[in-house]
Every structure is written in C-alpha cells, then in structure tokens.
Amino acid sequence: MFDAKHIAAQFPALQQQVNGQRLVYLDSAATTQKPQCVIDALSHYYQQQNANVHRGSHSLTAHATSEFERARETVTEFIGAQSSKEIIWTRGATEALNLIAQTYARNLLRPGDEILVGEMEHHANVVPWQIVAEQTGAKVVKIPMTQECQFDLASFNRLLTDKCKIVALAHITNVTGTRQPVEEVIASAHKLGAVVVVDGAQGIVHEPVDVTQLNADFYVFSGHKLYAPAGVGVLYGKQALLEAMPPWHGGGKMVEKVSFAGTTFGELPGKFEAGTPNVAGAIALMKAIQWYQGLDQHALATHIHQLVEKTKTALEQLDDVRILGYQPNASVISFVIDGVHHQDVATLLDQQGIAVRAGNHCAHPLMDALGVTGTIRASFAAYNTIEDVESLVAAVEKAVDML
Ligand code: PMP
C-alpha cells in the first residue's frame, strides 16, 4: 500500500487552507509542490554554501562546485546517461528545446528538410521548431493523432522520408497523459538517419527513464515537475551530437581562450553553460531526485493510476461532464462540462479549495483537434489521496448544479 498521506505530510504547501477549505492540489502536471527536504536543501545552500562555481579558489566555491557537479552525476545516473558530459543544465525543458533548435537544428537544416512534430505537443515542442524552420527554409510537418488521442504510428511511418532530419515528440503528453511510442519512433527515425528529440517534461516523473536504453538522441525535462524548484532543467544529448554542435549563448565559463583575434570554446558540458548557473537549483534537484528515488516506484505508479481511474469512473456519472482522450495508466485527466466555460468551472473549484488547471494547456493544435477552446485538467502526484478525488468529484457535481 502506498502511503500518500505520509508523503503529503512532508509538503508544507499542502498543509494550508485555501478559501477556507483544505487545499486539494491537483495541478502537479503544471508544477509539483516541494517536499520539506528540497526546501531545506535550497535554504541550506544559501545559508551555508553560496558561492559561484568553477571560479575562484576559496573553500566555499570549491564546495559549491563539488556539490553542483555531484548534482550533475546524480542526474546522469537517474536517467541512465553514459557520461556527465551529456548533461547540460538549462532553465527548464523549454530552454533545452530552444537550445537544440538553435544549435543542432539551425546548423543542420537546409531548405526542404522536414521536422516531424506530433499534434499533441506542448507549444514548447512546436514553436522552437517553427522558428528554426523559418530561419533555415525547413518545414515543420504535423504527425496527426488518432481519434483516441494516441500517436498515429501508421501516419508517422508514411510521413517519415529521407527529407526528415528531426522528429520531436513528448514522452508523455500534458493534456491527456498519452504515452507516445517513443521506442518505435526512435527505431524508425534512426533507420533514415533522423534524430529524435524527446520532450520528457511529463515523462520523467511518470516512469523510469533510461536514455541509453531508449536510444534517444536528446531528452529534456524541467526540475519543477519533479518536486524540485523552478528555474533548473536538463538537456541530455548524446555526447557525439553535443560535441559537434556549435555553442548557443556566449559568455563566461563556456570558453577556452578569448582574444579579440578570436575565441576557442570549452569542452562539454561547460560549452553550453555560459554565465553563472542556477547552482542552488541544481543542488535542490539532486535532493528532489534522491527523495523521489526513495519512493516505491511501482506502488507510486499504481496509486496514481488508481486515483485517475476513480476520478474517471465518478466523473462519468455526472450529467454534462465529458472526459477527453482518457488514457488508462495516466496521471492526468482532462474534461469539459458541456455548456459551461472551463474557466468558470475552475473558479468554482478554487472557491472549494481545489486547484486544477483550466485552459488550453499550451497545446492549441490539440485543442483544435478536440474541437474545444480549453479543458479542465486534474493532475495527480505522490501526495494525492482518495480524499482528494472525493473532494474533486463533489466539487464538480456542485459546479454542474450551480452553472
Ligand atoms: N513539455 C511539456 C509536455 C510540458 O508539460 C511542459 C510544461 N507544461 C513543457 C514542455 C515546458 O516546460 P517548462 O515550462 O518547465 O519549460
């Protein structure tokens, strides 16, 4: 049995009341709350360790540098990368995707080349490709989804030709929680020499990830959806690809030698880390990973899937509630109430202490395909309980009656 109440007790933000009610936090796909140990790691860093890294020679900077690099090693092991040189710190998944687009892709793409992008993708995995397509004369081609909100593998295989240089898709999508067939996509794309960029913003926290086994060329994620603070994220790239890529941002730490006659760039991973990094964020991400790895992963996944299934079964009983693209074994559920604006529903839920996300979830193409302007999304994490599901369902029922 997974003890979600014991977990929830470790999260100070969950102990508060919102609008006079117990906070029921069902917006973890947007960002997770943080356990006390992660908050402590952040404050400990600023109280005791704060220093810039890879510069200077005093004890504090040496210690901060070693913790910062230990955090990189922790991420390396966590995602099964072969070397810590393959782990680049970024501000998050969005920055990592833009980095790949503006270095790897911009250097590679020629007019007429194609970038295949899934229809259910988050804007962070669409817009950077559109920008680089505009810059290079390449073309972004949509990989359609099926009516059941699944990745359409048959269409993908038809669209995949030797014009395709990059395939971009989420490991798990953020609106319906669809697990996309990344293994099959990677195998097919590699046969034609295309690289695959996997957006792991949701995937990283919903199943164990081994990038080497997956054979992903790039895998990106944000710390803040993994119980760590915002402002730190990871770009994993195969070492050979990263070595061959030009740098993105110029500045301190990413150089070997600067002179006005010209500059030579440093080695990985520093080559992509110009300027002072988010040292505290990286160290707190290390703590979050250690905390997360301490959970029984199988029991956690089963617990979350059960909560989502119970939510689905209960919501289905309510008049006018329509669940969109339900996926078994997901950690999110999206629904609409026919005739009522999603924002009005979310406001009513908020008045009852329930935090959900309402809107287009940065997925306009998916909203268009579903024929809606937005949905209400409840998303679940390790700290959610069956009581949270009951509160949500009761509140939705009340909202249906009122509206
Ligand atoms: N991709 C997916 C699937 C996401 O859910 C998100 C966050 N909503 C992102 C990318 C972007 O992540 P961030 O805003 O942390 O960079």
Q: Can you put this structure into words, describing what you see?
A:
It is built from 14 helices and 17 strands. 49% of the residues are buried. The chain has 403 residues and is of the alpha/beta class. The mean pLDDT is 96. α2 packs antiparallel against α10, α3 crosses α10 and α11 (297-316) runs parallel beside α14. The protein has a 7-stranded mixed beta sheet with strand order 4-10-9-8-7-5-6, sandwiched between helices. Strands 13-14-17-16 form a 4-stranded antiparallel beta sheet, with helices on one face. A two-stranded antiparallel sheet has the order 1-2. 40% of the residues lie in helices and 18% in strands. The protein has helices spanning 4-8, 36-49, 59-78, 93-108, 127-136, 153-159, 182-191, 211-214, 239-244, 279-293, 297-316, 342-351, 364-370, 386-402; strands spanning 17-18, 21-22, 24-25, 87-90, 114-118, 139-143, 164-170, 195-199, 218-222, 233-237, 255-259, 262-265, 321-324, 332-337, 354-355, 357-359, 375-379. Residues 92-94, 122, 124-125, 170, 174, 199, 201-202, 222, 224, 362 line the site of 4'-deoxy-4'-aminopyridoxal-5'-phosphate.
